[in-house]
Automatic annotation (TrEMBL):
<dbReference type="GO" id="GO:0008283">
    <property type="term" value="P:cell population proliferation"/>
</dbReference>
<protein>
    <submittedName>
        <fullName>TPO protein</fullName>
    </submittedName>
</protein>
<dbReference type="GO" id="GO:0005179">
    <property type="term" value="F:hormone activity"/>
</dbReference>
<dbReference type="GO" id="GO:0005125">
    <property type="term" value="F:cytokine activity"/>
</dbReference>
<comment type="similarity">
    <text>Belongs to the EPO/TPO family.</text>
</comment>
<dbReference type="GO" id="GO:1902035">
    <property type="term" value="P:positive regulation of hematopoietic stem cell proliferation"/>
</dbReference>
<keyword id="KW-0732">Signal</keyword>
<dbReference type="Pfam" id="PF00758">
    <property type="entry name" value="EPO_TPO"/>
</dbReference>
<dbReference type="InterPro" id="IPR019767">
    <property type="entry name" value="EPO/TPO_CS"/>
</dbReference>
<keyword id="KW-1015">Disulfide bond</keyword>
<dbReference type="GO" id="GO:0038163">
    <property type="term" value="P:thrombopoietin-mediated signaling pathway"/>
</dbReference>
<dbReference type="InterPro" id="IPR009079">
    <property type="entry name" value="4_helix_cytokine-like_core"/>
</dbReference>
<dbReference type="GO" id="GO:0070374">
    <property type="term" value="P:positive regulation of ERK1 and ERK2 cascade"/>
</dbReference>
<dbReference type="GO" id="GO:0005576">
    <property type="term" value="C:extracellular region"/>
</dbReference>
<dbReference type="InterPro" id="IPR003978">
    <property type="entry name" value="Thrombopoietin"/>
</dbReference>
<keyword id="KW-0964">Secreted</keyword>
<dbReference type="InterPro" id="IPR001323">
    <property type="entry name" value="EPO_TPO"/>
</dbReference>
Length: 176
């Protein structure tokens, strides 16, 4: 089964009726550690792909670095929206890169990354707090890149950083 389905299935099996509540994903720290490990593995496998091309059409990647102090001062809804913006831009970047990479190893890794990032995007779109559902149209801080490996680095940093801390923050409320 496609790897992204595990994330979505895990979430759907643990939803409460009416409002998305991801207890297992948030409360079981082993799951986010698993996704961090998968992001690292994808990044390593991509680094071993031979002759990855430089993208002729540069792609825009979100800048996913953040200040932990500023992050802690934001509401969960603000964090969710920020991550959604980053994921939406990343998913678009992966889709654009997939169209430019014909080499089998790189194309396979990009397809897997697309599934993972898109699953997180779909998952977080279902979360809703005070502001209602997410709507596209945000513009995160971004940078133009021509290297495929930068896409994987960005995804790993997003999962290891903002997503992990976001799930940690949610766990404080949901996992009492």
């Amino acid at each position: 089964s496609p790897p992204g389905l595990l994330l979505l299935t895990s979430f759907l099996l643990h939803m409460e009726e009416g409002r998305a509540s991801p207890p297992r994903l948030v409360c079981d720290n082993r799951l986010i550690q698993k996704y961090i490990g998968e992001a690292k593995d994808m990044e390593k496998r991509t680094a071993h792909c031979q002759a990855l091309p430089v993208l002729t059409c540069p792609t825009m990647l979100p800048l996913v670095d953040f200040s932990l102090q500023q992050w802690k001062s934001k509401s969960n809804e603000t964090k969710r929206r920020e991550i959604l913006c980053d994921l939406a831009l990343l998913v678009g970047a992966v889709a654009g890169a997939r169209g430019q990479v014909t080499q089998e190893c790189g194309a396979r890794q990009l397809s897997q990354l697309y599934q993972h990032a898109n699953s997180f995007l779909l998952l977080l779109q279902t979360f809703s707090w005070e502001a209602g559902p997410w709507e596209p149209g945000c513009s995160p801080r971004s940078i133009e890149q021509t290297h495929v490996t930068a896409i994987f680095l960005t995804y790993r940093q997003l999962v290891q950083g903002k997503l992990r801390f976001f799930f940690h923050d949610l766990a404080k409320d949901l996992c009492k």
